[in-house]
Specification:
Blueprint lengths: L5 E5 L2 E5 L6 E5 L2 E2 L2 E2 L4 E5 L10 E4 L4 E3 L3 E7 L15 E9 L2 E4 L5 E6 L6 E7 L4 E9 L2 E2 L5 E6 L9 E3 L5 E3 L3 E7 L15 E7 L9 E5 L4 E7 L4 E9 L2 E2 L7 E6 L6
Parallel strand pairs: 8-16, 18-25
Antiparallel strand pairs: 1-2, 3-6, 4-5, 7-9, 9-13, 10-11, 10-14, 12-13, 14-15, 14-16, 17-19, 19-22, 20-23, 21-22, 23-24, 23-25
């Protein structure tokens, strides 16, 4: 793996020069007619400066993230010969773009951390950032302004777990209804960052109770649509004022008070 050895002679001294493109340790000995004249010595060749066209950026995971969780990108610094660097160094820049409504926005540099991790078998740079919007986060890694191998990378960020306080109630049934006519509203499940969840399985408890003891019970049907949306249907079967309560576990849902008055009328709309 060593290049050709070149010998030169000057002032009674022989000089040997050689080179290699492979970093590592080599044993060097001098022989004359097959007989060693010096003890074997170890010579080490270290990698050159990192090179963008051989340095590699890759995902630490499977490319799937969760809103609010840490995402990790790994940068394997290599010199122009492909030798992996074992020491930190290099003018790396990282840009992260995350969804922002119908467009995207860049994270501030202060929101992105680049750490040298020498605790691994192969030391490398570790990029960490948090994305709170759901959707695709784009990560560009450059060295000296030139994209490295593997850049850009993408991470598909999913909503976090449900936050009852952020869930949204919408529809006519939130305010009341017309006597003996079925009404409805929907519950959109949300995470704590305001992302709409797209999976069902949450057990919402909805009750509609009359404030007068003589009113009959009001049956309520909650249907999980499996899309993060839950449809609630009920029929107010007597005139009066009712209390609507929506809970998930022990928590109230959305900005709805624990008891929200509903008004039923025999004609027109609730008011």
């Amino acid at each position: 793996s060593l290049g050709d050895v070149e010998l030169s002679f000057a002032n009674g001294t022989y000089n040997a020069t050689f080179s290699t493109t492979f970093a590592g340790s080599y044993e060097v000995s001098v022989q004359v007619f097959g007989v060693g004249v010096t003890a074997t010595q170890a010579v080490s060749f270290v990698p050159e400066a990192p090179f963008a066209l051989t340095t590699i950026a890759r995902l630490a995971g499977n490319g799937l993230g969760v809103a609010g969780d840490k995402n990790v990108i790994l940068i394997e610094g290599r010199d122009k010969y492909g030798n992996a660097r074992t020491q930190e160094g290099g003018a790396y820049t990282v840009e992260v773009s995350v969804p922002d409504g119908t467009t995207t926005k860049r994270l501030f540099d202060s929101e992105i951390t680049i750490l040298w991790n020498d605790q691994l078998v192969q030391p490398l740079y570790q990029v960490e950032f948090v994305s709170t919007p759901k959707g695709i986060a784009f990560v560009e890694v450059k060295l000296g302004g030139v994209p490295v191998v593997g850049s850009p990378l993408t991470i598909d960020v999913s909503p976090a777990s449900i936050d009852p306080a952020k869930c949204v109630l919408s529809g006519p049934g939130v305010n009341g209804g017309i006597l003996n006519q079925e009404t409805f509203f929907e519950i959109q499940s949300m995470d704590s960052f305001g992302n709409e969840r797209s999976e069902g399985g949450d057990k919402f408890e909805v009750t509609v109770e009359c404030t007068q003891a003589t009113c009959p019970a009001v049956p309520v049907l909650v249907t999980d649509l499996g899309t993060g949306v839950y449809e609630v249907r009920y029929t107010l079967n007597s005139l009066g004022t009712f209390n609507l309560q929506v809970r998930l576990g022990m928590a109230d849902v959305g900005l709805l008070p624990v008891q929200s008055p509903l008004v039923v009328t025999s004609k027109g709309t609730a008011g």
